[in-house]
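With this grant's support, we have paired protein sequences with backbone structure tokens. One protein thus recorded is set out beneath this paragraph:

_____
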Amino acid sequence: MSAVRVGIVGLGNVGSGTLRLLHGNAGQIASKLGFPLEVSAVCSRGVLASPPEAVSLHPAASRTANWKELVNSPDVDLVAELVGGTGVARKIVESAIDAGKPVITANKELMAEHGATILARARKRGAWVGLEASVAGGIPVLTALREGIAGDGIDTLIGILNGTSNYILTEIERTGAAFESVLRAAQDLGYAEADPSADIDGYDARSKLAILAALAFGVEVAPRQIPVEGIRRIRTIDFAYAGRLGHTIRLLATARQEPEGLRLAVRPSLVGVNTVLSGVIGSYNALWVHGQGGDTFYYGKGAGPAPTGVAVVSDLMAAARDLKTSGSQSAPPFGHVSLKPHAPVPGGTEVHQFYLRFRVRDRPGILASLTAALADQGVSVEAVLQEPHFDREDLPFVTTLEPTTRQALDSALDAMRGSDFLVDEPLAMPLEPTLMTS
């Protein structure tokens, strides 16, 4: 059977990783498909002057700096968009769809912001769209939600969806090093960008959660509708206190179907040391899903050229198979024929136990003042913890709170703001109670 010809736009880490996999696994791919996948064209701004080394593995592929030339080439049957961003990338994807060509993307921002519109366009044109590589790299979580557990009624999913943040948190816990030095190490290792804000401020995980919510719950979620908090304020002392409570700290992306509606959030949280998510170390990702069928758990490398390249190649194989067989019964990319608008649940109404860390200039009456501000909002203190510390001008201590709403807690924190004994604003993190134990 004749080859299916692939055009790849974007030759960065993921594009190069994809080229290497298509070359190294060519025999296995052909054996599984019954026909070969052939890279017939590659495109990037610098491919003519300084092509990446991986391009040389496909000497017969044409090279161009003009993505329109690649998308419209009669020698390209499938298009892989590996550029990133939401500007040119969207034009590439939509142009491929308009040309009736299947298109694969690893672009989480694009699919989170414009996925529903793109997929409606693809359905109208009868084009195939693959997006497995856009969430959790080498873990096939989208395929699992779309097909593997499609018959389940999912009510909760909780994930560690950003490998950079998870690496930073687990290194702080392991080494006791300061946040800033661990961040620099993450940048040196290539885990974090020069501007790390998308990772450490939670925006990367937020985009991925929007995509997961579409598959799990059939809703179109704009990322800006999801409350987000990052990890910049987490310190070594927080892991010491969390440990005393039998917990550790992870940046969690959560989605819960509640009577009031679907509640979504990205925020650092305390998780019990006996839960499966507490064991996710370094740059790994994981997703726990609960439904009528019980618990399922997905774990693996969340990013990098090889894991993400595997997801891209797997989508290319699925698209090629669909193209060869004129398949019309494959599941929609988001697992639903159409997505419903998402009505955000009012923020601050969820009830949690909270960890509340203070840094103060020590003097009499501080605890009474803080607990009074909490009591005024109906918030009760469960316990007070204080590790030995010798700097009386920057003394940390922690209170854990009885279950309360975030709204009530925020009102209490507003009343505390400006107190002359506070060195820094209090840090509040929920204790996550509903996780599968290991």
User: Anything to note?
Assistant: The first helix runs from residue 13 to 24. The CA atoms of residues 176 and 438 lie 25 Å apart. The longest strand covers residues 247-258. The mean pLDDT is 92.
